[in-house]
Amino acid sequence: MAVYTEVGDEALAGFLKGYDLGAPLSLKGIAEGVENSNYLLHAERGEFLLTLYEKRVDEADLPFFLGLMEHLAKRGVNCPQPVRGRGGAAIGRLAGRAAAIVTFLEGLSVRRPTVAHCGEVGEALARMHEAGADFQLKRRNALSIQGWPALFEAARGRANEVALGLASETERHLRELQAIWPENLPAGVIHADLFPDNVFFLGDKLSGLIDFYFACNDFLAYDLAICLNSWAFDEAAEFDLAKGRAMIDGYQSVRPLTAAEVKALPILARGAALRFMLTRLVDWLNVPAGALVKPKDPREYLEKLHFHAKVETARDYGWRA
Question: pTM of this prediction?
Answer without folding.
Answer: 0.92
